[in-house]
Design a protein that fits this description.
2 copies of one chain form a homodimer.
Chain A (H helix, E strand, L loop, with lengths): L2 H10 L3 H14 L5 H12 L5 H13 L4 H25 L3 E2 L2 E2 L1 H27 L3 H27 L4 H25 L5 H28 L2 H4 L5 H4 L5 H8 L3 H12 L5 H13 L2 H19 L7 H15 L3
Antiparallel strand pairs in A: 1-2
Helix pairs in contact in A: 1-16, 2-5, 4-5, 4-8, 4-16, 5-6, 5-8, 7-8, 8-9, 9-15, 12-15, 13-14, 15-16
């Protein structure tokens, strides 16, 4: 088994039974009377990710109390929301790889991907309503807005070439960290409901989410296809500004800047050009800067839950932060 | 002014002020801090449709009582839901025309269309939660599921070529009538909340919605581009089975059937081929059959609200049914 998975399995040990409850909720949530929907669902379930968001909801719920049926429902819902955005991402990016297999839109075409994403969103909504909890609904609906608004903001800044570090942090907060923060906060909302618990778990998730995106940014510029299961250099190729690039851009000589722009402006960026871009960013400190920020956000995540007494659950949350820093996928 | 619009203006006369309240809710609902989102929203608002769904919510609310702030919110939400599905439809169909202007995806590309559709869905969700009404939420979430499930069912049947009349009615009920039925029922849910009112308005909307889709099917086979603002023959071109085609297929000789299949199987269907298909369907009674069904569903819609005392509001609902039968767009 891959090292990442071994680490994750250890982290999940204290919530093994909870994850089975989640799995039941999840499997039921996608059922339909339409045969084609069930075929696509099976394909999706077979190619599932690492369940990071449901794991976070359940760990948070155990940090704040005892999981309720709503905790498992909320966990299923966050995973559905995440999967729907992945499927829609595939459409819009025309990515050919997602977790190392042909993405759904290559198998079922764009039309079905958009509709299937919408179908899963509607199932998340049905699950959401079943929570019967307006606090949860408010939190989730504003999160849903941030997911798409964050991505559109990213495109706007890529078109107008006006991405700054502070806009970048705002953007990844919306498009990545908000969903992870809400996944954690739902652990509190579905158990103790205490404002204090909500704030702590939300902060934990938000900082972890920021660290998660920065790690992905680093993969984008460092990684390779077989390692990450994603097309590496994808963001660089599409002129999406990632943190290492933003830092380096602001910390290079004018002649370096002109050269970088020339490389970024090339319509087709082959491995040779991507390597050149990488070396310029490395040389001008962009990689180190992003790694420092990754550590910084990771520490802030751990600080957010420092007031809770030590326990296997708390340890698993801390280990998840470390898991992100060290993951090779 | 176009005859359709004159008729519609007359129908809306008794709810002129209500529609202003709806408009306020709607304009506020789409606001964002992201500039690109606001540009796209402006483009969408400029190219709005006929507001049929909000008109139905408001007329229904006045049929059952006095509109509440929630009635206007619900009206805005149904229009948002409708617009989001239109935008996603544009992506998946790669349609070049929508209401006679270049569709959003030609201006902003597929990526933004998917994300903008998702953004509008999330805004509909936020609006939904503000209703603070679980009856409404349950109704809306199952409707959202039907919208995408109905479209996926249509694709499945088009791929497997196993569309029957009864599956067709199930399919248009899900993909078109359910949203219109819920638009009407929300008029009752946000006012009297009486089960009887909910059932009557729901039935009215459901039958009207069926009639609406059959009218669109007739446009697809009869209409022309400048008349309908949509690409005519779009469904026929994509081998989507519409009601006239389904009836004719079952009521023609085997040699006619072979010829029809040959025409439908052609990858590129020019005007000449579409005309041939039209004549075969006309000859074998498909057009007349669909027109009869259109009248049938229209009458059933009117019957659904027959127990209400006569009023200008009831008359407007009846006139809307007639508007659909006679509309030329």
């Amino acid at each position: 088994m891959h090292q990442d998975l071994i680490t994750l399995k250890k982290i999940c040990k204290p919530i093994e039974n909870d994850l089975k409850e989640f799995q039941l909720e999840f499997d039921n949530a996608l059922s339909s009377e339409v045969r084609l929907i069930n075929s696509i669902s099976k394909y999706i379930i077979k190619n599932r990710g690492k369940n990071i968001r449901p794991i976070l909801t359940i760990l948070s719920s155990r940090l704040c109390g005892e999981p309720t049926p709503n905790s498992y429902r909320a966990a299923a819902m966050m995973e559905l929301l995440h999967i729907a955005t992945l499927i829609h991402d595939d459409v819009v990016d025309d990515a050919t790889l997602r977790r190392g297999r042909p993405s759904i839109n290559k198998v079922w075409k764009n039309k079905l991907s958009v509709l299937m994403g919408d179908f899963i969103l509607s199932k998340a909504l049905i699950n959401m309503v079943r929570l019967n909890d307006f606090d949860a609904l408010k939190q989730i609906s504003t999160t849903a807005e941030k997911l798409s608004a964050g991505e559109i903001l990213q495109i706007e800044k890529s078109i107008t070439r006006t991405m700054t570090e502070s806009i970048y942090f705002d953007m990844i907060n919306q498009k990545t960290a908000s969903l992870i923060a809400t996944s954690c906060e739902l652990g509190a909302i579905t158990t103790s409901k205490l404002e204090e618990d909500r704030q702590s778990t939300h902060s934990f998730g938000q900082y972890l989410g920021m660290a998660f995106q920065i790690k992905d940014d680093l993969f984008d510029i460092l990684g390779n296809e077989s390692d990450t299961g994603k097309n590496s250099g994808g963001d660089v190729k599409k002129n999406m500004w990632t943190l290492p690039l933003i830092f380096s851009k602001n910390n290079m000589t004018r002649s370096q800047y002109r050269l970088l722009n020339k490389l970024l402006n090339k319509k087709r960026k082959d491995g040779h050009i991507l390597k050149k871009i990488y070396h310029m960013v490395e040389e001008t400190g962009g990689i180190d800067y992003a790694k420092n920020k990754l550590d910084d956000f990771s520490n802030r995540a751990i600080d957010s839950i420092s007031s809770y007494p030590n326990s296997v659950i708390k340890q698993s949350l801390v280990d998840l932060v470390g898991f992100n820093v060290n993951r090779v996928k």
